[in-house]
Amino acid sequence: xxxxxxxxxxxxKKHDERVRDDVTRHIAWQPEIQSKDISVKVEDSxxxxxxxxxxxxxxxxxxxxxxxxYGVLSVANDIxxxxxxxxxxxxxxxxxxxxxxxxxSVPDEKLKVxxxxxxxxxxxxxxxxxxxxxxxxxxxxxxxxxxxxxxxTITPTVSTQQIKEKIEDAWKRSIxxxxxxxxxxxxxxxxxxxxxxxSWSEREQAERAAWQAPGVQAVTNHLIVSP
Length: 227
Hints:
Blueprint (H helix, E strand, L loop, with lengths): L4 H25 L8 E6 L2 E8 L2 H12 L6 E4 L2 E2 L7 H14 L8 E6 L2 E8 L2 H12 L6 E8 L5 H14 L8 E6 L2 E8 L2 H12 L6 E4 L2 E2 L2
Parallel strand pairs: 2-3, 2-4, 6-7, 9-10, 9-11
Antiparallel strand pairs: 1-2, 5-6, 8-9
Helix pairs in contact: 1-2, 5-6
C-alpha cells in the first residue's frame, strides 16, 4: 500500500504525539524533578522543552529524561531556572569553590570561578575530561546557580593515533554499540564521530566514550540516529 502525502502527515503527527506523551511521562517520573511547569513540544521527533524549574539540576534531569526516550532525534532545552530565593554572586562563587574542595575528582587549584547574575563560568586547564565534567556537575548542584559556562580546556597527553584506538576499544567493550556502523577521526586532540546508531542514548554513549579517552579536547558528534 502506498501512503499519500496526507496519510504520511497523519502518521508523523501521531508519532510526534506519542513521543511527546512519552517524554512528558518520563520527565514526571524523575524523582529529582519537582517542577510542574515543564512543557514539551515535538516536531518531526525533535523535542523542545520550555517552562520553569527551581534548580539547574532539575533542568539537566529533564533534558536527560527527554533524550532517553525512544524515537527522540534531538532535544532543545529552553527551560529557565528560577531559584526560590535569590542569592548574591559572591555567595554562589564561595559555595562553588567550597564544593570543589570537597570533590576529590576536581583539582580546584587549577580552576578559576566567576559568577554573574547566577551564571557560573569555569576556566582553567585539566588533563582529563571526567575532571572537567565533575567540575561542571559540582557547580550545577550549588544552590542559586542558574547556568554553567564550562570554559575549562583539556591538555593533550597522548598521540592522535592512541586517542583513536582507545575510543574504538571502548566502543568494542560496550554491548549496546555496533562498532561496524561507526568510525572515529582524530586530529590533535579533536575527535569527530561518524556513522549510525539506533537511539539518542546510544549516540550519547558513543560520545561519552570518546570524551573518556585521555587528551581529548573536543568531540564533534555526527552520528545519525536511525531507529
